[in-house]
Amino acid sequence: MYRASFGSFGSVQTKNSLAKTIRLLAAALLVIVAGASGAAANPKYAGFVIDAKTGKTLYASNANSLRYPASLTKMMTLYMVFEALDSGRISKKTRIRVSKNAAAEPPSKLGLKPGQTISVEQAIYALVTKSANDASTAVAEHLGGSESGFARQMTTKARALGMKRTTFRNAHGLPNSGQKTTARDMARLGLALREHFPHHYHYFSTRSFKYGKTRFGNHNRLLGTVSGVDGIKTGYTRASGFNLVSSVRKDGRSIVAVVMGGKSGASRNKHMTDLISRYLKKASRKGGGNLIAKGPATTRIVLPKKGPVPKFRDVTEVRVAMAYAKPQKTSSFPIPLDKPVVGKDALIASLNKQRSVVAPVPRPKEPVGAQADIAQTSSSTVDAVTTSSTGQPSGWVVQIGATPTRQAAEQLLAEAKAKTGGMINSAQPFTIVTHRDGEQLHRARFAGFDGKSHAWKACKALKKKGYGCWATQQ
User: Fold this and answer.
1) What is the pLDDT of residues 224-251, one digit of tens each?
2) Which CATH number fits domain 46-282: 3.40.50.2300, 3.30.70.3270, 3.40.710.10, 3.40.50.2000?
3) How is the chain split into domains, by residue range?
4) 414-434 confidence digits (pLDDT tens)
5) Phi, psi torsion values for 214, nearest 5 degrees
6) Would you call 161 exposed, middle or buried from its count of C-beta atoms within 10 A (0-12, 13-18, 19+)?
7) Contact 93, 120 (CB under 8 A)
8) Long-range pairs of 20-24 with CB within 8 A, sequence gap ≥ 24
9) Given a cut of 60, is residue 30 above it in pLDDT?
10) The pTM is what?
11) Per-residue exposure over 93-114, b if at least 16 CB sit within 10 Å of its own CB, e if not
12) Which of 147, 196, 304, 408 lies in the 20 to 30 Å Cα band around 205?
């Protein structure tokens, strides 16, 4: 009897335990479904998690859908700053002058005044922590000549990094209907920052920054609260919702996660924490990373407001400017963004791998408008330019670019000579026409160097002024 009763009790207990387990599973499932339906019900939401060692996608929801980046934009602004630092164009101590335009940007901001200066390193800290819009615009104007010009450089850099659906219109992320990105593209940018600038990446883990008498805390609340998180950036506008890109490294695993369109900062942070908890453990401990190839270096570009021929300033990526210039009716050789036409790789390819077809260059008709300005500058600051129709100088030469028009090449040479001075003053500027893959290009070169050492020193001087340069013997 006792045994029978014990058996009956055991049976009841087993049934109760089973029922409890079912209820718990149902509750858990309800939470998961509710969370998924909540994200799906939010039209701004997008999420993405990638294994930073292997490149494997661990989670994706609306990952390729266009979204507003808001202040995630500053990730690219900082990428461009780091690139300029590494190229020697600027140093951390370089002073950036604040324009009226930069000072007038709405918050979040440091409160910079027109005419004031801020160091590059202070600007970096301001962008990372305070997400300062005034500092962002000042940086853009310093590096790009204008914020719109800098935004074009940012877009071109995005393409070079494989961010196929990203377009930038400003350097800070304030509302602009044309400024779009995707969660997947932002993850690529996060990976690129980690991989390409490990010596600068530590800025993203800064918890606070003191400027003047004020200390600004980092908007990224996951720093110091979620184990393994070492940066990167938050963002918010009314149109974008609450955005966050997080880099996580823990126990030999590494991921980059993106949440876009959160309904509040708190819900965004919780969702990011959940993604990290769920997917970090699924990341591999093997794999070398290095998932994002470096794009070509970008320097300052200034385009005219009117006229078909752009006026270049500190241009090594002339194709970038031409991609955004008004199409020329007389040109039948458009330059696609994915084909670099200047710099070391392009020059080696054109000199060693391709048979250049040299064609005579007819003198252009009397220029008008913006063309007249360029022609006047060229004639006043450049010695008589040797073209391929009158022969090429021999010996060591240095090339600083290649453009779709001879006028643009001459302008590039003129400004390089005026800004660099020194041994470049005695160098002979010349252009040479080549046809490459159905595109007509005009190489901008200097000649007249006393051997290899002289040419290399000239290149070094040009690079200090922000120009791309490659020396070779012909």
Assistant:
1) 999 999 999 999 999 999 999 999 999 9
2) 3.40.710.10
3) 46-282, 318-362+369-473
4) 888 888 877 687 788 888 887
5) -110, 135
6) buried
7) yes
8) none
9) no
10) 0.60
11) ebebebbeebbebeebbbebee
12) 147
Pairwise CA distance, residues 456 & 468, whole Å:
12
Helix axis angle, 369-381 to 406-420, nearest 10°: 50
Phi first, then psi, for residue 291 (nearest 5°) are -90, -20
Q: Confirm if 261 and 272 have CB atoms less than 8 A apart.
A: no
Q: Which residue has the tokens 């010996």?
A: 395
Structure tokens at 324: 């955004």
The Cα 9–Cα 5 span in angstroms is 6
Q: Which backbone phi and psi does 348 adopt, to 5 degrees?
A: -60, -45
Q: Is 61 helix (H, G, I), strand (E, B) or coil?
A: strand
Q: What is the Cα–Cα distance from 212 to 272, expressed in whole angstroms?
A: 33
- DSSP state, residue 181: B
Distance CA 186, CA 178 (A): 16
The answer to whether the CB of 222 falls within 8 A of the CB of 229 is: yes
Please report the DSSP string for 186-255 in residue order: HHHHHHHHHHH-TTTGGGGG--EEEETTEEEE-S-TTTTTSTTEEEEEEEEETTTEEEEEEEEEETTEEE
Residues designated catalytic? 71, 74, 131
In this structure, the chain runs to a length of: 474
Query: What DSSP element (H or E) covers 414?
Result: helix 406-420
Judged by DSSP in three states, 441 sits in strand
For residue 62, the 8-state DSSP code is: S
Q: Which helix (H) or strand (E) holds 4?
A: helix 2-41
Nearest to 428 by CA among 390, 384, 372: 384
> What SS3 state is found at 153?
helix
Handedness of CA 203, 154, 319, 316 (dihedral sign): negative
Q: Using the 8-state DSSP alphabet, how is residue 128 labeled?
A: I
How far CA 285 is from CA of 52, 246, 276, 292, in Å, comes to: 10, 18, 15, 19
Pairing between β-strand 46-51 and β-strand 57-61 as defined by DSSP bridges: antiparallel
CATH topology of domain 318-362+369-473: Alpha-Beta Plaits (3.30.70)
**Could you tell me if 376 and 309 are in contact, meaning their C-beta atoms sit under 8 angstroms apart?**
no
**Count of other CB atoms within 10 angstroms of residue 65:** 17
Identify the DSSP state of 71: G
Is the bond into 108 cis (omega within 30 degrees of 0)? Answer: yes
Q: What is the DSSP letter of 430?
A: E
In 3-state terms, what secondary structure has residue 420?
A: helix
